[in-house]
Every structure is written in C-alpha cells, then in structure tokens.
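Example record

One chain of 379 residues, shown exactly as stored in the release files.
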Amino acid sequence: MLRSVSLFGFCFCLGLFSCGRFEHEGKLSCLTHENCPKKHLCLEGVCKPGETQASGETQGPGENPPTEPVCASHEQLCGESCVNTQTDNAHCGECNHACPEGSFCQAGSCHLEPQTCPVASQTFCGESCVNTQTDNAHCGECNHACLRGSSCQAGSCQPEPEVCTEQQKRCGESCVNTQTDNAHCGECNHSCSEGTFCQGGSCHLEPQTCPVPSQTFCGESCVDTQNNNAHCGGCNRACPGGSFCQGVSCQPICPGSQTLCGASCVDTQNNNAHCGGCNRACPGGSFCQGVSCQPICPDSQTLCGASCVNTQTDNAHCGECNQACPGDGFCRGGRCTCSGSKSLCQGQCRSSSDYLFDNNNCGSCGKICRRTCFLGSCP
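Predicted structure tokens for this chain:
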C-alpha cells in the first residue's frame, strides 16, 4: 500500500500521470472520466474500457453505464450538478442560462436586483413593491396568487365576502344599510339606544303606530311612501325638482299634452307603443293617429276613417274623404259622373226633364227662376 502511494506521489511529481489518477494493484484508479485514457470510463473508481453512449447505441457486453447523480424532484441535472433552475443564477430556467450582472433568478426568469421598498410592510416582487398581506397576486409571498372568488387577507387567501349594493356599507363581515340599521346607524358599530331606531342615518325615538296600514312613520308624522315627494319609497328619499312620487319611485312631470307611461312621457295621440293609453301598442302594418291605430295605406290609397280607399274610384270618397257620389252616379278620376243622359247637378244626377219645372234649376243646373219655371223657361 505504501509502495503504491509512494509511486503515485513520485509519478505525480514526474508528470507521468494526470492528477486524480494512479495505478493500484495493476488497475488505473480515477476520480472522474477525464482521469481515464481514451475509450475508457471511470466506473466505481477504476478506469475500465468503454465509451459514452450516443442516442440509440447499445453497450458492449460486460459494460456498465456511467453513474449520474440522482436529483431531487425540484432540481435538474446541469453538467454534473443538481440545480434548482427556478432560483439558480447560473442556470435560470434551463441549464447554462446565466442571469447577467445586476439581476437574479426568480421563478425561472431573470429579474433586476430588488430595490429597497420605501414602506417597511412592502416586499419587492418582480419589478414592484407590494403588500403581501393584501395583494391578490402575491399573497403571503411573491407569485402566490389567490384563485378567483377569493382575496388576500392578512397574507392568506380567503373566500370573497358578499358584494354590497350602492345603498350598503361593509361593517365587519356583513353588508348593512347605515341609513336604517340600528346596530350601524350612520356608520359602522354606531348602535341606537333602547327605545330609539335608525332612520336616515341617525337615531330617533320609536315611531308611533300609524292609523293607516299603508302609511309609514317618517320623522314625526305618518306618510304614504307610495306617493309622498319627500319620502318616496322610504323615509327622507325626496324626489328632485321636475319629478313626483308614483309607486315608490320618482317619475318625471310630463307636459300637458303628454302622459307618463313607465318612466317616459309620451303623446298617446300618435305614439305607436302607447296609442290612446299606456301600453296599448299598434299591431304591425298600422300606426297611431288620434288615439287609435290606423292601417298604413299603399301609395295609391288614402286613409278615410279607418279604411284605405282609392279616392279616384271610391263612390263614398270621390276625390277626397266623405265626398259621396249620388246613388245613381259613380266616381271616375276622382269626380262623380252620372250614367246615360243624366248630368250631375247639386250632388244629384238629373235628366233633362228635371229642369222643366224646377225654379232653382230652370232649363239648366243652377238657373234660378224668380217666377214660375215652365217647360224649362222663365216667362
């Protein structure tokens, strides 16, 4: 044994062997593969014939593969070392990917060196200072994000509290109306004393029983919150100018010719959705005119009453609405015409014999005889 050690030291001094390699009992000892000659591997501390295996090659008989370090689940083998590529500055994200000077590895990527946060309660995460007690993206520590439906409270993710309405305020774990809540009157934790109640955000003496069931005690009096402009839908909910209380809500005051339908002022004389009254809609193919639905007439027709007519040929509406032709006449081209030898005179179809004895139409239509018309002439 002493002989081999002496020989090793002697050979080392002479430069006949590389450092880390020496002969023992006829075998060349080694520490790594680099200590062995070509086509040899360092196996179990001794150089043995063999080569590093390429992909797809098979080993020769009697050869053992070189042993490699076994890395932990969160580590990766880079060269001959196991490293955490999430935090290792020389192998950030992957092997041999080094972070440049002035940066550090965090979560597998290089970041600028953290600055000192101006607020003692803050932590530098990524590129900014955050409060890990309340930050949803960095809750308790950097990059620990809270899931949807939860929020960061005191450094841990907690279920989201209920969402308060505009009229409510969060007091502890509950949403309350500080205008009416006896335990939180006007502000959280300000409770009304016994014998008083919360109204309009201040404590009042207990109300008296109103004589009418539909009334509510507001301040010092009983009111109907269905139509009271100062207490519309609830005590102290006043309607602004230009509106009035109707059905617990403030509605606009409509001009004299208009009617309030829903929340809008409309003219029921010509509104297709509210024709003659609220919510009385005209059906398709009609329109509102004079509080009633009328049909929409084709271009060649005119609306007379509730009907579309052709005033060029309609005997009841000849030339215009309600201009009727006589019973023995007919409408042609918008004018009443008589059949046969008759002629139209003062709205009637007359024959030649009708002019023989008519003082108002003596001999012809419209010729007046101040005496007695005889055989169409006035003596």
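Notes: Residues 2-14 form the longest helix (13 residues).
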